[in-house]
Amino acid sequence: QVQLVESGGGLVQPGGSLTLSCTVSGSRFNQKVVAWYRQAPHDERELIATLTINGLADYKSSVKGRFAATRDNAKNTTYLQMNNLKSGDTALYYCNFLPNAGTWGPGTQVTVSS
């Protein structure tokens, strides 16, 4: 049974930074592409970053240059460093795999507001 637990969200002012973490259990983490998703109010969940097994990252254009995803396979954990946050980044953030595991964690809320 895959379990995903995200943490690190919070309220931050525009231009600020946050680092999210996600720890995964019950899956062969080091053999899968890791992905970060987010869902803003009234919107569909969207894919914003992917990480290959070796840590090569790709990003949705709206976060490219501001977000950096990394992974620690020894800890079954992935991180999302978010810089220069904007109000449009306000969302519930999730980690999962690509394709997703069929189950989701609770997410962690990021609110960007002055």
Structure in a nutshell:
The protein has strands spanning about 5, 10, 20-25, 35-40, 45-50, 55-60, 65-70, 75-80, 90-95, 110. With about 110 residues, the chain is an all-beta fold.
With strands numbered from the N-terminus, the spatial order across the biggest sheet is 2-10-9-4-5-6
Largest sheet descriptor: 6 strands, mixed
The assigned structural class equals mainly beta
Based on Cα principal axes, name the global outline.
globular
Helix content: under 10%
How many helix segments? Answer: 0
> What is the arithmetic mean of pLDDT?
96
Q: What's the N-to-C terminus distance?
A: 40 Å
Q: Low-confidence spans: pLDDT under 50, at least 5 residues?
A: none
Strand proportion, as a percent range, falls in over 45%
Radius of gyration: 13 Å
- The total beta strand count reads 10
Please write the string of helix (H) and strand (E) elements.
EEEEEEEEEE
Can you lay out the helices and strands and say which pair or pack?
Layout: E1 3-7, E2 10-12, E3 18-25, E4 34-39, E5 46-51, E6 57-59, E7 67-72, E8 77-82, E9 91-97, E10 108-112
Parallel strand pairs: 2-10
Antiparallel strand pairs: 1-3, 3-8, 4-5, 4-9, 5-6, 7-8, 9-10
Describe the overall structure.
The protein is mainly beta. It contains no helices and 10 strands. It has strands spanning about 5, 10, 20-25, 35-40, 45-50, 55-60, 65-70, 75-80, 90-95, 110. Strands 2-10-9-4-5-6 form a 6-stranded mixed sheet, with no helix packed on it. The chain has a 4-stranded antiparallel sheet with strand order 1-3-8-7, with no helix packed on it. The radius of gyration is 13 Å and the shape is globular. It starts with a strand and ends with a strand.
